[in-house]
Amino acid sequence: MNDTPVERLGWLGTGAMGSVMAAALIKGGADLTVWNRTTAKTAPLADQGAAVAGSIAELTKASVVFVMVSTSADLLSVVTGEQGLLGGERRPEVIVDCSTVSAEASAEVRAACAEAGVGFLAAPISGNPHMVADGRSAIVASGPGETFDRVARWLRVISPTVVHAGPGEQSRLVKICHNLFLGMITQALAEVTTLAEKGGVTPAAFIDFINGSVLGSTFIRHKGRAMVERDYTPTFNNKMLRKDFDLGLGAARSLEVPMPVSAAVHQLIQTTIGHGFAEQDYAALYEVEARAAGLRGAESDA
Amino acid sequence: MNDTPVERLGWLGTGAMGSVMAAALIKGGADLTVWNRTTAKTAPLADQGAAVAGSIAELTKASVVFVMVSTSADLLSVVTGEQGLLGGERRPEVIVDCSTVSAEASAEVRAACAEAGVGFLAAPISGNPHMVADGRSAIVASGPGETFDRVARWLRVISPTVVHAGPGEQSRLVKICHNLFLGMITQALAEVTTLAEKGGVTPAAFIDFINGSVLGSTFIRHKGRAMVERDYTPTFNNKMLRKDFDLGLGAARSLEVPMPVSAAVHQLIQTTIGHGFAEQDYAALYEVEARAAGLRGAESDA
Amino acid sequence: MNDTPVERLGWLGTGAMGSVMAAALIKGGADLTVWNRTTAKTAPLADQGAAVAGSIAELTKASVVFVMVSTSADLLSVVTGEQGLLGGERRPEVIVDCSTVSAEASAEVRAACAEAGVGFLAAPISGNPHMVADGRSAIVASGPGETFDRVARWLRVISPTVVHAGPGEQSRLVKICHNLFLGMITQALAEVTTLAEKGGVTPAAFIDFINGSVLGSTFIRHKGRAMVERDYTPTFNNKMLRKDFDLGLGAARSLEVPMPVSAAVHQLIQTTIGHGFAEQDYAALYEVEARAAGLRGAESDA
Amino acid sequence: MNDTPVERLGWLGTGAMGSVMAAALIKGGADLTVWNRTTAKTAPLADQGAAVAGSIAELTKASVVFVMVSTSADLLSVVTGEQGLLGGERRPEVIVDCSTVSAEASAEVRAACAEAGVGFLAAPISGNPHMVADGRSAIVASGPGETFDRVARWLRVISPTVVHAGPGEQSRLVKICHNLFLGMITQALAEVTTLAEKGGVTPAAFIDFINGSVLGSTFIRHKGRAMVERDYTPTFNNKMLRKDFDLGLGAARSLEVPMPVSAAVHQLIQTTIGHGFAEQDYAALYEVEARAAGLRGAESDA
Predict the structure, then answer these.
(1) Which among A131, B94, C94, C285 is most buried, taking Cβ atoms within 10 Å?
(2) Is residue D78 a contact partner of residue D70, using CB atoms and an 8 Å limit?
(3) Residues of CATH 3.40.50.720 domain(s) within chain D?
(4) Tell me, what's the ipTM?
């Protein structure tokens, strides 16, 4: 990155995830100014060389401002609010929203940016702070091609996988597809693990083999362990997964795409909820599968 | 491995896969004698330090003999045949079969070994020669615990993932479960890729994102590329995959395990065959999905 | 009916269906006054003994007024419109709506009746005019128990099957359930007919046997004939059936009822639409099934 | 039937079902001779005018002999046994087997008849003795066209629905298809009844409406009542139905017919068995559906 002219970037929101992403930019050679509602959280980044802004308005000196906040309301507030990025006379060229927000909030912010002549990119990230720090995250962005091209090199500093999904809200659809896929893999894993188990193979050995094979993935490693330990402490509960399947099958209906396995898994998630696991992790798909195979005794009932 | 006392091992079958596995044993410090029907194919291993046997009988000086042959008939011939490993007076302590053979052949060889007082381990490997050489393969073994313990350290020299699935033919069930899982992941990927595509996302970008995410795997990388390129040149065709689903659902029926998604995918493979893709790669599940979504024109019909 | 004191009834809407229903009431001993926008259509009923009203207002002399109109807008107009049943000073005690209208319109009319102190019953009928005349129709009503009891004897004069589904809009849910069931039976029939056909049984013989068995029904007789003749002239097209499945699975989602087979059929209807049968009768589920079984040549493509 | 020349018929097996079928032939004008292992059971038919044979050999004076026995072994014994219909010098022209036997037994008898120059028709009947007496049964026959034509008029005396399914063992496939259809209708009914129930409709009212509609059938009337009463006293248990689905999906696999809904229901039957209902009536599909919808309390567990 040494030969690129140094560019002035802004970062809004330095929670756990925002901080590791911003740190990656600093390490990648960016001239970064950061702002956070609670200023204390910006200290570690200041130590790494970031300037700290006293107000959101100060961030507008940057040509590109990245936003990483918690909720749809936060996003609306920091962009379109009175004290927001679009609230003053000076505005950044491009706003890149890395938050996971509702489609409605995203569309509202996109429209406000368009009116203000500011480029907008929705660029949610997949992975947790630990994975981002290890270089194992992925970013899916959507917005106009020229906006994407304008900031892609910085996104690539943060994440080894950066994908431009389309000119509008496609990044949201991609994240829903990701979660449909994740739900289907989980049910598939529940079925084969149960089959192996009833055939005399210990679940742990089975999942170790799958993970050593070409099918292995970080996801299967984690979710497989939850199944083996029958630990349904929620990382993402069945109601949340059902919500994503509602959205995904709704999108499939609108776009006229038949989804036979997705639809089957949607109903199995509902069955899992009906059996009392609404608030448990969706790894409980395995519990319902195992019980239907006659594997569990009454004492293990939820 | 330097501190382990050198053990005399035998290797029977030095085709493409057998050769990389045998080479790994040599590199791992084994005193290895190899035999192959076509002697010329043993030359590269001889260059790496292997002794070359003139007959199968000579291999029986080894305490453990690994077998890697192409077919069930070959396995029966080299083990139970007149000139086979059990045919003479001297016999190895343990035979480890790494071939992918029928359950019937495996059981017949297992019984013959038992009668002859020779330990037998079925230890099929997942991966191709390239992956074995790169240390990205996995071995699932089944047979008596003490037999497994006797040879596990050598299996671990070949493959980073070595799993003991059970005392009998469980390794066969595990490989079938692996292939059921692989078929389900393929259909799931076909559905979400089609949905993303109809929503305006290019399939290549979508699959890149999935592979950069926690869900990414070697398998998805390869099968996703086949979908993107709509290249159905068979690596494993739909009839072969249907066969594994026949076996898998048959096992599930015997063991009384309901498999809702496996059963749905079984029928979708049959649908794919009905649409003319019997001899094509099972990546064609995507083609049938895409057409059902109205994505393909008549000119692309098989 | 001779011993029941004669009651004054009104009938609003004398199209094909309304006329046979009203005629049944006359035959059943009712003192019936009828009204229709196009007065000419009331003539046959007048011949059978009905009085003909000159305005909707005249109908309000009746204690119970039945309504059978074509659309939601018509229902709103004839009940809540200025010249409607609730528009003047005199009102009937009970309004029975036999039309098939939207849930929204039904709820709006129900609320208006409640406010006006008029009992309201939603009582859609299943069957066509021919079947009503033959005594082979069914009525599912919902509304307060006392309102149902007040008019049940007249509904029974029209139809041998009269069911009280609940106090609110349950009759609407029942009709959706009816259509889900009808879609599932159609796909099931498509599967077994195709299986029999590939096994050498002519579809006509197969369907004749089914209809002679305990499973036989008026529906299977008609839909089976359409399959045998591969006649997909729409009686109800795939888009209409998909709409009912959208509503049904939406209701199931709200009520948290897993519907595995309904969901599978929903996706198969979408597949049928994707193959070009959107505007054809849903008997085309059979065509898609037969093709997936490799039964149809290219010359028969839609 | 008065103008048809009287033909000499034989009836072998006068249990509950055989007796009502034989009685129908007598009423239809046949000159009937009957035989039963326990002679006493032939008395009521003798009263109606049948001659009673002292041995199976005596039946061979008849040109056509109908067989209605309980098991495959019985069929083999009475046809191919030493004292059987093919055992002596005189043989009937045609044997019509109305029993429900295995495909193997049927094929063995068919081959023996062919060798002996005797026509053979497999002609199982659908319905119970009560329904046969009421003229509500159905017969599906398979065998050579000329054999069918030779005896069709007598089959039509027994049953209003007589279908010729094909020249070989097709009648067996048709009965399996019938049972697949029956299983699918049951699951479909379980889903919609549960949905209606959770929406506030009493199951009894819902099923009454369905039965009054075009979808109504004798089967739904009976199975619906079992669901309403949650009475799973077996008429046909889940293991029996699973067996028919095993056979049906096996046939579909051989004939290469995808059966998405049949396969889904097969897995749901397995799930029902896994939940403890193996020996209960398959109406228990409703119980498992209702529980998955959260409708049942723990106290109602099987």
Answers:
(1) C285
(2) no
(3) 8-168
(4) 0.91
